[in-house]
Amino acid sequence: MDDQNIIEKSLKIVKKYPLCDHCLGSLFARLGKGLGNEKRGAALRRTIIMEMDRRVREGIEDESSLVTVLGNLSSEETKEIAIAMNLNIHELKRCYVCGNNWNELVKTWSKKILDYLDGMEFESFVVGCTNCGEMEERHRDLIAEFKLPYAENIKNSFKREIGKILKEELRKEPDFVDPDITIIIDLKNNELKLQIKPIYVYGIYKKLSRRCSQSIWKYECSVEGYLQEALNVFQAKEVVLHAAGREDVDVRTLGSGRPFIAKVVKPKRRYVDVTKIKYSNDDVYFEFIRYSNKDEVPRLKGEDSLKEKTYFAVVQCTETVTEDELKALEDFFQNTIVSQQTPTRVLHRRKDMVRTKKVYWVKAAKVDNTTFISLIKGEGGLYIKELISGDNGRTEPSFSSFLSKECKCVSLDVVWIEKPTLENT
Ligand SMILES: [Zn+2]
């Protein structure tokens, strides 16, 4: 006889192991797609009973093996059939794989997940199952023992059935490619994990304070800290600032503001009109322009060094500076390449190397004998404080070296930053 015959094969299995409809069906899951394991198993169970009945009638098998088989077909319906057939089955054995707990497990975990997702905004989801514990091991052993090429891993069945319930209850579609929420079940460790897709928001900020750092650091006030407050409407676990470049703690960013992308980590809410979020105080001002995505983050950061920036500086000199000298300074720094060795003050976090950056133009106006104000437009990444001071010769040429007197930047503002070339900006 054809040893892949499914009646023959399933009969062989249930003579040895008690199985519920689901678990029996799952051993042939790839046959009759669309049936579902429960119905597939029920069809096999009923056919097995009829086949055994025939064999007993024709003297091929005796009644005791029919009783054994019936006792191993763990379904309420089997009881009724046994009574109708006048057979006395002492006990209906519990399913070898799931202990007749399958439906209860699916129900409990679905409920658990629904409770977990309560109050969370999302459009799409996907369910995954990393481990079905001992149930999975027993199921796998059966597949190996009886060589069942059409069986499916019980994890697939579990996540699919839960997915079906969630789809119905939530009225949301599963998305296997890029879901808002990924639900991961680990039955072995009784754990439920949620992976929530982060949200990205593009905007600009102005930093109005000279005592505020960009990222959350040792300063009480930071742009990133305020950003978390500004975006608290998302009820996120965390908000991370990805900015196009940075300014020092004592430097303000005014004018056009600095472009950034906020990464909103594990948000509970997703549908917020970000353009309506207003947030400003004495230290910062935010403008939220549109939603962004994770691909734009490296582009925003990568492009920054190419983007032009304009600064306003107040410069203090050790000696008197004249109008003529300042005019010469303006002429000299017209489209001038400056060579900058990593500034002493950032050596602890930056590699020591020489960079060449372009100064497009400089404007300077005298305020008093030793002070002047200056507008400087330069390539992204140009260190302005060092362009002015010279950083003991590490930046060359500098205002100090050109004027032959020590100059120092006493206050600095970024007043204009070229916009990144991202989509929709
Ligand atoms: Zn079962």
UniProtKB/TrEMBL annotation:
Residues 200-417 form the Pus10-like C-terminal domain. It is an enzyme of class 5 (isomerase). Its EC number is 5.4.99.25. The keyword Hydrolase does not apply. Residues 109-186 form the Pus10 THUMP domain. GO terms for molecular function: RNA binding; tRNA pseudouridine(55) synthase activity. Keywords: Isomerase, tRNA processing. GO terms for biological process: tRNA pseudouridine synthesis. InterPro entries: PsdUridine_synth_cat_dom_sf, Pus10-like, Pus10-like_C, Pus10_THUMP_arc. It comes from the Archaea. Belongs to the pseudouridine synthase Pus10 family. NCBIfam families: pseudo_Pus10arc (TIGR01213). This is tRNA pseudouridine(55) synthase. It comes from Ignicoccus islandicus DSM 13165. The lineage of its organism: Archaea, Thermoproteota, Thermoprotei, Desulfurococcales, Desulfurococcaceae.
